[in-house]
Write a structure and sequence with these properties.
This protein has 353 residues and is mostly beta strands. It has 2 domains: 221 residues, no CATH class; 109 residues, no CATH class. Helices cover 5% and strands 39% of the residues. A hairpin with a 3-residue loop joins strand 21 and strand 22. The two termini are 18 Å apart.
Length: 353
């Protein structure tokens, strides 16, 4: 109950698959997933579903998510934009539209700007990156989510642990974190403990790093995201207040496979358009996708990664036809989860109107 599916065929040709979620169903919610649930990497969407913890519910549908670093990049699977999973920050925003859900389960689309800074002792604050490759240009903080994605030789880092009674790791949006340097780490493959972080930094911050040094991490954003329980990047926004936004992006005027998420007062929609398959579907431009989403009834909608990543699964079955003839290993996904009857309903999972 609460889930509907349809397949629209148009003369372009277009093959469009839609999963519709009834927002009034109290035990259906949306949870973003990393490739290995709570670990960064690359994994086919069907495998991401198998790794979802049964204690959180049963994933009944899933769509691919944000753009990401590929297998040839230093940190494969690093989401390009914002990613928050069960209140925990995994990836920083990049001033690009993203989708987030508040404590009541209500979806929002915003362009979020990061204001992340780190201060060690009496040092001046410096902007830092989160769970990304360290190239020396700015400090980088690694959380346990990055432990499977770190590859090759890396500069030495510093382990950060809870500083006394202050709130310590993990990181949350808009909540300052005070930590203490436990010591240096040089083994890039060493697993990160759940309550620890790794800080990598060049000069001048490196000069202040030593065991026992106090560290303050600020994770402010504009707009504030303290009420965000989960978030996933993508963009651009395609529909706002029932009208196409007219926003563009790279290759937006070309026809490609597309993925999108939208909603109105009654339903949320997971939509994929197949493409690059002349006999089946040629794909859509972002403008064409926006117009279709408006006709579908979306008041708000956002674009997700497309091309070979475009995929929609319902009850374990791939609905669409991935353009390479197989599932691509991707970094993130958005799951529709049915919470067990024995589990108390959580406002963070309920898709509130």
């Amino acid at each position: 109950p609460g889930i509907g599916v349809s397949h629209a065929v148009r003369d372009e040709p277009w093959s469009i698959h839609i999963v519709r979620v009834d927002r009034s169903q109290p035990r259906l919610g949306f949870i973003p997933s990393l490739a290995y649930h709570d670990r960064i990497g690359l994994n086919p969407l069907s495998d991401q579903l198998t790794l979802f913890p049964k204690s959180l519910g049963v994933p009944v549908a899933a769509i691919n998510g944000d753009f990401y670093a590929t297998e040839n990049d230093p940190m494969p699977g690093d989401p390009r934009g914002l990613f928050i999973q069960r209140n925990l920050l995994v990836s920083a925003p990049i001033e690009r539209d993203c989708l987030w859900f508040d404590r009541s389960g209500k979806p929002h689309i915003d362009t979020v700007r990061p204001r992340f800074t780190v201060r060690v002792g009496e040092s001046a604050p410096q902007e830092f990156g989160l769970n990304e490759d360290f190239d020396g240009s700015r400090p980088v903080v690694l959380t346990p989510a990055a432990s499977t994605a770190i590859q090759g030789d890396r500069p030495s880092g510093w382990i950060l642990a809870r500083d006394g009674s202050h709130p310590g790791p993990p990181l949350k949006a808009g909540q300052p974190l005070r930590a203490v340097v436990r010591g240096a780490v040089t083994n890039h493959s060493a697993p990160l403990e759940a309550d620890c972080l790794i800080l990598r930094a060049g000069t001048p911050l490196q000069d202040h790093l030593r065991p026992g040094a106090r560290v303050v991490l600020e994770t402010r954003t504009e707009p504030p995201l303290e009420s965000a329980v989960s978030a996933i990047g993508g963009g651009p926004a395609l529909v706002h207040l029932g009208k196409p936004t007219g926003k563009s992006a790279a290759r937006s005027s070309e026809r490609h496979p597309r993925s999108a998420f939208g909603w109105n007062e009654r339903h949320c929609f997971l939509v994929v358009v197949d493409g690059r398959q002349a006999g089946l579907s040629v794909g859509m431009t972002l403008a064409e996708l926006s117009e279709f989403l408006v006709k579908l009834g979306c008041q708000e909608a956002i674009n997700f990664d497309g091309g070979g990543s475009t995929e929609l699964i319902l009850n374990g079955q791939v609905l669409n036809s991935p353009c390479y003839g197989r599932e691509r290993a991707t970094a993130t996904s958005l799951l529709v989860v049915r919470v067990p009857e024995t589990q108390p309903e959580t406002q963070s999972q309920k898709p509130s109107p």
